[in-house]
Amino acid sequence: MWLGIYLSTDEVVGQVVDDKLKTISLRRRPIITYTPKSGHVEQDPEEWWTTLTTVVREIKRDVKGQKIKAISVTSQREGLVFVDSEGKPLGRCIIWMDTRAYKEAEYVKKRIGKSTLY
User: Which residues lie below 8 Å from residue 8, measured CB to CB, with a gap of 6+?
Assistant: First the structure.
């Protein structure tokens, strides 16, 4: 069996498939997105972890001790998480949908050029 985990912008999804790609377990839990001000879009990294562990526990119950051969994990695009010296988040993650630095990004794009920037 194989476990795939996807931490998307909206939810955490875990899916276990067998060697013939038949779904053995599919679990998903939503993630809260915060918009404290216009253009500000954030998520709580601690919630990512809590939600992920919930999904994995549910999958563990579903597969009842059967062996998982491999785990693959992917997640949403760019995000900015500030951490302390112990790696603990100092606050919410500024996710890819956030536009608070739009003016600065446009300035940089004009100065260096879009092709250099990307």
Answer: 31, 75, 76
